[in-house]
């Protein structure tokens, strides 16, 4: 029997934007910066849509947590083909534990058979939300998925691990986090972009869910990486060896 799939998506700085650090080092400057859906989240949406198209899912629900602008990210998921959206409105920096608790509150209401998330967001690279969510729900989890095969009562997840690939079988409901090689996300067509404007997005005020959103850690300083030194053109292998010895690479 087809199941409901819930996909969590995050609004981040577009991958083509070179981020700038604020002059006071308090964080990244987001003023007038193009934002888009986290690339790993796009993969999660695409996988859910493919499962629905294969007759394995009855509905795909896209959920995002964040300020009013996060609705744009949900609309992107709807334009890709998701059925409806849920926007949990919250201001400020929301850490993974709070995100997982908010998602759990939505999942308790929606009762999906499968939850899919990107393995991490490219803004902080924390790779924590999926694992924390599975723990809070007490559901099995398959992380770093490069292949997902959904059955009637379980899901086989092929995971990318240090030694190669590992396949695990999870009883449903379950949590899956996506890796880069799982699929290639589709582009939203113009007709689907227009249709997405009419698809419903439910708004929920995070404060009404009774969850403490206070950050658990403080960012002391943000700094850009040191500038790379210019290269040197060498005329012979002997010069190369001499340069490597000079810099201490060779003894």
From TrEMBL:
InterPro entries for the chain: ET-Flavoprotein_bsu_CS, ETF_a/b_N, ETF_b, ETF_beta_N, Rossmann-like_a/b/a_fold
GO molecular function: electron transfer activity
Keyword presence, Electron transport: yes
Biological process per Gene Ontology, one example term: carboxylic acid catabolic process
Signal peptide stretch: none
Cofactor: AMP
The organism's place on the tree of life at top rank: Bacteria
Assigned protein family: Belongs to the ETF beta-subunit/FixA family.
Subunit details: Heterodimer of an alpha and a beta subunit.
Function recorded in the entry: The electron transfer flavoprotein serves as a specific electron acceptor for other dehydrogenases. It transfers the electrons to the main respiratory chain via ETF-ubiquinone oxidoreductase (ETF dehydrogenase).
Protein name in the entry: Electron transfer flavoprotein subunit beta
